[in-house]
Each structure stands twice: as C-alpha cells, then as structure tokens.
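Hello,

Our lab assistant flagged a job as stuck in the queue for most of the afternoon. It eventually completed. Since we weren't sure the result was trustworthy after the delay, we are filing this so someone can double-check. Below is the sequence as submitted and the structure that was eventually returned. Let us know if re-running is recommended.
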Amino acid sequence: MGATTCSHCRRENSLEAAFCAGCGRPLNGELAPSPPVEPIVPPGAGLGEQYLKCPRCFSPNDPYTRHCLFCGLALSSPEAARLRRKPGGFFARAAALVLDAALCLGVGLLLAKLVGWAGTILLDQGPMVVSERVTDIIILTYTVAYHTIFLGRYGRTLGKRFFSLRVVRVDGNPVGYLRSLVRLLCYLPSLWFIGLGFWWTLLNYRKRGWHDYLAGTMVLKTDDR
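-- returned structure --
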C-alpha cells in the first residue's frame, strides 16, 4: 500500500493526508521510506483506542500524530488546548445575553436622560424631552458599541464574564472588532422564528448558534472571570 513521505522530516503519512503528521508542513506527494516515530499521546486519547480527534476540524488522526493530517494543527499546541475547552452551555449563554440586554437598556435610558438634561441647560428653553425615537437610537448605538468593543478587546461582554464565557474564532484565536460587529448583526437571523438560531446551540457538539456559524465563532467555558 502506498504512502506519502514528508520531504522535510521523512515522516510517512497516509495518501489522503494533506499535512505531515510529524512536522505539520504541507505534503508534496513524494514516496519514500521513513523511520519509525514515537507517539506523543497514549492510544485511546481521542476516538476509541486507535484515533486522536483534531479539535479544529474534528478529523480522526492516529495516536502517533503530532499535527493533524487534514488541517495541519499542532495537536499539542496552546491553540489546540484552547479548542479543547468545553463549549459554553445554552443556559449560561442565555443568562449572559439577558444580563447584557438589561445593562444596555439601563445605560441607554440613562444616556437619553443625560441628553435631555444637557439640552435643557444649553438651550435654556425649559425642560427638553427626548423623543422615543431618539431614545431608541441611543440604546441601539450603545448596544452595538458595547458588544463590538468588549468582544473585540476582551473576547467577552460583562454578562459573559460573569458566567465565565469567552467568544473566540473557530481556530481558537481572538475574534477582533470587525468579527465582533458581524457576530452581533448575525443575531438578526438567529432571532427568526422564535429565536431558532439561539436554540440551535442545543443541537450540536460545539454549542454554536446560527450567528456563530455565520461569523465563524464559538463560545467557550473559561476558568476565570
């Protein structure tokens, strides 16, 4: 049976492998004998007694693998360790969302009051009443800024921090400001049909909602607040 040997480390890999299991470099398709290697994980640390599951692409790898054969992830790297963290549960995420919504509503109403007081002082024409439309715009603006800045800078909002949750990209890296904004906008399709996109977190292993799939993110459980 043929095998593909890495020209860099001489590690023998299966024909369907795209990356070397030993060094993680893309394979060039050369065929040559290679020396045996020692396993870095004990048999059984993955799928059954014969395979190790990649935390990024979920492909099965043999227990001798140092890098995933299909995506090249170093299976003992800090990135792989982040991806192996337990995903955030539905109820913790729902509670964090409610807490964030209450916070945004309260701060938005307070800002609307401050705008009214400032207008009263500056215009000196009696009490200034802020219309409901202006109040809604202030609350919406604060909500967008709140989620974008906190997720982009810290990876979690105050609500998610209270429940020890963190939002990351699917590769385990920080989400950044632009992806945080995209994720917030993707709440809209998740709200369709009584919030089906949020309930979707109950139906998959990584607890990802529609907004997570659309933005390329996932929510992990952390040990800190």
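-- support follow-up --
The delay was a queue issue, not a problem with the job. The result is valid. The CA atoms of residues 191 and 217 lie 17 Å apart. The two ends are 52 Å apart (CA to CA).
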